[in-house]
């Protein structure tokens, strides 16, 4: 039986949470985080290190409707990136992903104007640049951001709004459609890795104990 504070267990649970997120199993992500929280009740620094700042956790809270929790995690991630990269943080793929997730939260909250501002800003890097290392988890996150932006833009079209702030809605829909097409190609290439990891019996066994 693994002790809750063991490095191997927490590393394995982090991997497992990434797999669950890639499969859009958000309630299971939250369940794993809560199991970890209970196991690390006497080691809050380990919980904060491995789980409290996880983008998977932030996304899961957003989809569960716990928007303030998700946004607080994203705010901390942005502050951390600014400390690391200074003013260049806003030109990084990492921060663009965080902005996209924040846009999802605002969209779910009903603040469509703020959502479009963040979606549009994040799209610049998501389309025109590439991450240092592409992963199935990252590509899945990008795809969900683009899907959320598509839904938000279509909601304006449905209301007869063709311009929001500086964003021309029809032109933006076309840009997002092209970006989603490219993202789908990348997702196809990485999906097999997720399926392989999900079937890893050693990983599953470590998590269960």
């Amino acid at each position: 039986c693994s002790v809750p504070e063991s490095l191997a267990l927490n590393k394995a649970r982090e991997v497992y949470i990434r797999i669950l997120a890639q499969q859009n199993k958000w309630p299971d992500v939250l369940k794993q985080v809560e199991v970890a929280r209970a196991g690390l009740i006497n080691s809050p620094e380990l919980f904060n290190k491995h789980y409290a700042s996880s983008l998977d956790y932030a996304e899961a809270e957003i989809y569960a409707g716990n928007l303030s929790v998700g946004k607080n995690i994203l705010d901390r991630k942005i502050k951390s990136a600014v400390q690391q990269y200074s003013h260049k943080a806003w030109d990084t793929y990492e921060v663009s992903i965080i902005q996209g997730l924040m846009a999802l939260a605002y969209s779910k909250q009903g603040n469509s104007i703020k959502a479009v501002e963040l979606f549009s800003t994040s799209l610049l890097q998501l389309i025109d640049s590439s991450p240092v290392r592409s992963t199935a988890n990252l590509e899945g996150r990008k795809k969900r951001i683009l899907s959320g932006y598509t839904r938000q833009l279509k909601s304006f079209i449905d209301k007869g709004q063709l311009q929001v702030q500086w964003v021309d809605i029809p032109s933006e829909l076309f840009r997002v459609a092209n970006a989603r097409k490219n993202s789908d190609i990348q997702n196809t290439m990485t999906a097999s890795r997720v399926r392989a990891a999900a079937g890893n019996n050693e990983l599953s066994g470590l998590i269960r104990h």
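DSSP finds ten helices and two strands in the chain. The first strand starts at residue 163 and ends at 164.
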